[in-house]
Amino acid sequence: MRHGLVLFAPFTGSSLVRGWNPKFYFLRADPAAELPALLRYALAHLRGRRLGFMYMEGEYFGGIEYELVERAMSGMGYELSDVFSVESSVTGGAKKEAFDAAWEAFADTQLQAVIVFGSPTNDAVKLVRRMLAGKRTAVAYLLASSVLQYLVLRVWRAAVAGGVEFVPGQVITTGTNSLAKDTQCEAIRRFQELMREYLEKSGQKYYTDKDSFFYS
Questions:
Q1: 63-75 and 31-40 helices cross at what angle (nearest 10)?
Q2: Bridge partners, 143 (sequence order)
Q3: Which of 38, 107, 123, 169 is most exposed, with minimal Cβ within 10 Å?
Q4: With the CA atoms of 133, 139, 141 and 145 taken in that order, what torsion angle do they form, in degrees rounded to the nearest 10?
Q5: Which segments constitute the Receptor-type adenylate cyclase GRESAG 4.1/3 periplasmic binding protein-like domain (predicted)?
Q6: What are the residues whose beta carbons fall under 8 Å from the beta carbon of 134, sequence distance 6 or more?
Q7: How far is it, in rounded angstroms, from Cα 193 to Cα 212?
């Protein structure tokens, strides 16, 4: 502000840092804006009435979203079936006994879908792994925000490699960018045109398939 600079942020993991500032521009949607998309998908598309929520206490990400989802559910006449929340390892972490007890109670509720919000930490890895590998929770859909997308997919691949059954569509994450195949968007159609032209005429030798950008 003092030097008149304009700052651009590619994305943020927490809604806490958001706020109006004429010198600070965020290029992607507020993380809290992803929550209604996940909630709508869980309730309207998956038809999951037994919906759970997971987050870690003491982080900058998850607590606000939990309050938002409670208010949204209440406004529709619903409530969350259960919530898993223990102290994050960032602030000291819950004892193993407390973590396991909270997880057992959460898993016993036989949820149909679970929304997970949080930072991409070891806590999140532990939660996603238990969610996908546990006998009582493996049948539920797992919905996560874009900040956890890479972590969730990595843990899911590892779980499948370890013997967990692969269920197409079981894991759903939000995204803040259009897919390269989404031709409904004019910018993506233009992107496809320019990429194909580059791959065919630039003289580059790394990609022989002019549509290879679809798979990266």
A1: 40
A2: 115, 172
A3: 169
A4: -10
A5: 33-175
A6: 107
A7: 13
Q: Residue 215 belongs to what domain range?
A: 179-216
Is 95 a domain residue?
A: yes
* 167 lies in the same domain as 197: no
Please give the Cα distance from 53 to 69 (Å, whole number): 9
Q: How many structural domains are present in the chain?
A: 2
Q: What is the pLDDT of residues 14-65, one digit of tens each?
A: 666 666 777 777 777 777 788 899 999 999 999 988 999 999 888 777 888 8
In the 3-class helix/strand/coil scheme, how is the chain assigned residue by residue? CCCCCCEEECCCCCHHHCCCCCCEEECCCCHHHHHHHHHHHHHHHCCCCCEEEEEEECCCCCHHHHHHHHHHHHHCCCCCCEEEEEECHHHCCCCHHHHHHHHHHHHCCCCCEEEECCCCCHHHHHHHHHHHHCCCCCCCEEEECHHHHHHHHHHHHHHHHCCCCCCCCCEEECCCCCCCCCCCCHHHHHHHHHHHHHHHHCCCCCCCCCCHHHCC
Same domain for 215 and 146? no
- b/e map of 130-143 (b: 16 or more CB within 10 Å)? bbbebeebbebbbb
**Neighbour count for residue 85 (Cβ, 10 Å):** 18
- Asked if residue 3 belongs to a domain, the reply is no
At residue 114, φ and ψ (nearest 5 deg) are -135, 130
Written as one letter, the residue type at 101 is: A
